[in-house]
Specification:
Elements lengths: L4 E6 L1 H18 L6 E6 L3 H9 L6 E9 L10 E5 L9 E9 L3 H12 L4 E9 L12 E5 L5 E2 L15 E4 L1 H5 L2
Parallel strand pairs: 2-3, 2-5, 5-6, 6-7
Antiparallel strand pairs: 1-9, 3-4, 8-9
Helix pairs in contact: 1-2
Bound molecules: xanthosine-5'-monophosphate (XMP) and magnesium ion.
EC number: 2.4.2.8
Main location: cytoplasm
Organism: Lactobacillus selangorensis
C-alpha cells in the first residue's frame, strides 16, 4: 500500500467482482438495445473499461468531460462541458457511467442535457454512491458500492490529478490535503 493511503476500501478483487455483477445485470437489461455507454472523464475511465468487458452484448462507447463551476462554493449546479460526445444520443438508449455520485450536480446537469437532446432512455451506472452529500435529486440506477463521506482515490479517482493509476480504491490520509 502507498504511504499516502490510510486504508484500502475496495481491493482489486472487490472491483473486479463488482464490474462482473453490474456487467451481467446490464447485459440482461440492455440485450438488443444497443446502448450508448458514456464514460464521464476522467474518473470513470478504469471502471468503464472493466464494465464493458463484462457486457456480452452489442454496444457503443463514447466519452464526455465536464467540470463543475466554482469548486463547490457556488451551489448553482452549473457545469461546463470540456469535451462533448462524438455520437448523437437522439433516440438512443444511453447509459452514463460515473465513478462516484457526490452532490449529484454533475449528473443532474448531464441528465437534463441528454433529455433535451432527446435520448430514448437515460440511466446511470455509478461505481460508488456517497448518499450523505447529495443536494440534487439524482438516483443512480446501478450502484457498485455505497461509500461513507470520506475522500477516496484510486481506480480512476484522483487527488490533484494523482493516484488515478492505483489498482484499488483507498482513503487518502488527511495530512495529504491538510498540508496543502
Ligand atoms: P457531484 O458533486 O457533481 O460530483 O456529484 C461528482 C464528482 O466529484 C468528484 N468526487 C470525488 N473525487 N474522490 C474523488 O477523487 C472523492 O471522494 C470524490 N467525491 C466526489 C468526482 O469527480 C465525481 O465525478
Ligand atoms: Mg467523475
Amino acid at each position: 500500500m502507498k504511504p499516502d493511503i490510510e486504508r484500502v476500501l475496495f481491493s482489486e478483487e472487490d472491483l473486479h467482482k463488482v464490474a462482473q455483477r453490474l456487467g451481467k445485470q446490464l447485459s440482461v437489461d440492455y440485450a438488443d438495445k444497443n446502448p450508448l455507454v458514456i464514460c464521464v472523464l476522467k474518473g470513470a475511465i478504469l471502471f468503464m473499461t472493466d464494465l464493458v468487458r463484462e457486457m456480452d452484448i452489442p454496444l457503443e462507447i463514447d466519452f464526455m468531460d465536464v467540470s463543475s463551476y466554482g469548486d463547490g462554493t457556488v451551489s448553482s449546479g452549473e457545469v461546463r462541458i470540456l469535451k462533448d460526445l462524438d455520437t448523437s444520443v437522439f433516440q438512443r438508449n444511453v447509459l452514463i457511467v460515473e465513478d462516484i455520485v457526490d452532490t449529484g450536480r454533475t449528473l443532474s446537469y448531464l441528465m437534463k442535457l441528454l433529455k433535451t437532446r432527446e435520448a430514448k432512455s437515460i440511466k446511470i451506472c455509478t461505481l460508488m454512491d456517497k448518499q450523505d452529500r447529495r443536494v440534487m435529486n439524482v438516483k443512480a440506477d446501478y450502484i457498485g458500492f455505497e461509500v461513507p463521506n470520506e475522500f477516496v482515490v484510486g481506480y480512476g479517482l484522483d487527488y490533484a490529478q494523482h493516484y488515478r493509476n492505483l489498482p484499488y480504491i483507498g482513503v487518502l490520509k488527511p495530512e495529504i490535503y491538510e498540508n496543502k
